Amino acid sequence: MRLINQIKLLKVLSLVAFTILCFGCKTTAKNKLESEALEKIKTLEKLTDDARKKSIDVAREETVLWFSKEFLKFANWDQENYDAVEKLFGYYQKYEAEKETLAKDLPDFERKKVIQILDKGIEDLENILNGKVTRKPAQKVAWDNITVEKNKLINNGRPVFLHDYFSKTVGAPLTDKNIYNDHLGAIYHTGSHLYDVNKDRPSNPYMLNEDGTFDETLLSYITEVPDTNIGFLLLWNMGVPDWMKKQEPEIEKGRSLFTGFDVDNPLLREVWSKVIKKTGEVTKGKKVTDLGYILSNEPHWFSEKGHWTQKYLEMNSISSYTLNKFRVWLEKKYDGNLKEFNKNWNSSFKSFNEITIDIPMDPAQRGTALWYDWCRYNMDRGIEWFTFLQNELRSVNPDADTHIKIMAKMFIGDHRSHGIDYEALTELTSMIGDDAKITGGRNFRAKQPEKWEKKYAFYWNELAHSYDFQESVSPNKLHINSEGHFLSTSGFRELDTDIDYVRSSFWLATLHGMDASMSWFWARDADGSPEDRLEGELNFFDPALAGSYAGSANMQPHVVNEVSQVMYDLNSFSEEILALRDQRRPLRIFHSETSAINKNHHMTEQSKLYESLYFEGFNIGFATEKIINKQDHKNWDVIVVYKTQYVTDNEFKSLQSYLDNGGVILVDSKESLTKNEYGQTRATKLSASKGKLIYADNTSLNEFKDLAISEVKTDRKVFVKETNGTDWKGSVWKVVKKENEDGYVITIVNLGKNTADLTVSLDGEENIEVKNMMNGLEIGSNFKLKSKGVLLLEISKSSK
């Protein structure tokens, strides 16, 4: 027995010794990596001092140094708090099974990435100092001195693009330079952005007490914001206090994921009127609203059975207020003709006041009159709700700018029961708003490769497609992505995100109109610990928040550094970027919400057409009934109609009017435009009139694309030829003539999976000069561009 105990003791002692040894190994590895990083910091600091003495701009190196020091601190916190980090990894399904390994490896991963960005920073600055390359000085952002013009931001007399992180570390004061600075961004916001609607969310019904007075604490989150930096104010629609629920038992019927109440409820309207007016009064003229009042966070009202939102209580039923408003809408829509209504619905209601509908609806109803009428009404009530909010705000603050954080997939997705009219809401507000994503990899939940993976290095279509539509609807508005999802989404997160992807995604989005973005998200306090929301037990109504920290930008120094670096580069050439993106859109794709509502895959078909046209070197635009009726037809050369069978009579009339005024329309087949919103065959057909009408029956998508392009009038002088080992193009390019100078500026982004062999030519010139504007080097007219690579080039005829 004694021997057994001795053996057990020896095992325990051996285990302790092994643990100590392992800890010592880990500590040694940590010390080695940290020491290496600290030495490289000294090297870069010395080079930076040398550069300053030569009057070389070193803003980029200052950012590298700042992130390096911060993440060495973060790595130490992560190592000392293994249990907390492991727990946070476990909240994200993708990482749950390997949370122990990831938590253990994270500190050294961060240190190695710090070394990586330091190595690149040292190499870049040495090349500058040695004269091997040149670069344009960074445009430093004066966060307290930015002016807003109708479609651009001006910083010290120059256009500027802004970036920050949304929902920045909760609890940190806006004046904390560790969180609000040139490296992370310094866009201010009102309130603490907590997800506990009972606590620190200003601009919501909790601001108003039952006796009609305002909660002074919540009001202070608005009134005490320093009036220095440009910023935004978010109206938080998540819920209502108990006293409102007692007065109005139906107030949560018809709620949605982030709109936690019935927007048709009279008490809700009364309270919101008081809240938004008070908000507008106390923030009138403040810099913190220069980037607008965000009227809602990710609004939608999906109304169909089986949709993923149903389990989050979205539109599980509707209130009597909503039903009665729908009845009024129907009576107006049918001009009081109950017989026609019953025929359409295949029903036998005796009056409009008796009409009922089951919500959520069976998606098998798609294509019926019942489906169309509800989906169209649901959109119209969304428009009416946001019109109400905006009108109430502007009744006390007439100059208030507004936008809405709408997810781009509400437009490009095939679902249409969501109540979001992307065009109408883009047109309604004074700024373009969205919550758009680009994803650098496959959704981890996908059971098989996603369709885009066959051709492209990352998923770009959602943002490009939706942004080109919004910019077509409102070409002269500031465009703000108030929750950018390029670095992470609920379905995509890579712990070692490729910095080439980071650069190309931000570059591409800016080329498509993005003036300011707030990435999801920054959740580190200055000491390295996660922000307050991510401590303790995480049990949020928001299904994505708990898992947002794992694999996020907060663990990736190379990613956040690259975001800042690409913003420096975009802002160094901000005039050129604006000139490239703000060009005429000569080809317009006709968009009809009527077909989108009725057809199962209308937007998928539209996306295929959009993609086929995307790599031809010109900006793509869209036309709708409103765009045709309101905008100058000289803004485009041709409208193409593709697989659009269902259009209202007014949509049809707008197309005919365009032809009557000499327009050009290309239609894919005689099936398009043949039905009204209820699937009834239209008796009339388009007539060429004074214009040109082309039907492209029995053509393939590529043939249809070529026909469309042949109708584009262009005096294009610059051309790009691409070979990449596939049968499709992968490099998107835009070109513009230099203002008051000979030559052209061209930007190219390789979205393809392979390296592209590119040849640039200038019409009429055998010999041309092609210079990389980012480093001043001549590269010749034939060059290679790696997958996810970005170039900004100057092209001119050779002087030799």
TrEMBL record:
Gene Ontology biological process terms, A to Z: carbohydrate metabolic process
One Gene Ontology term of the molecular function aspect: beta-galactosidase activity
Presence of keyword Hydrolase: yes
UniProt keywords, alphabetically: Hydrolase
UniProt-listed InterPro entries: Class_I_gatase-like, GH, Glyco_hydro_42
Hydrolase in keyword set: yes
Protein name, per record: Glycoside hydrolase family 42 domain protein
Source organism of this protein record: Tenacibaculum jejuense
Source species taxonomy: Bacteria, Pseudomonadati, Bacteroidota, Flavobacteriia, Flavobacteriales
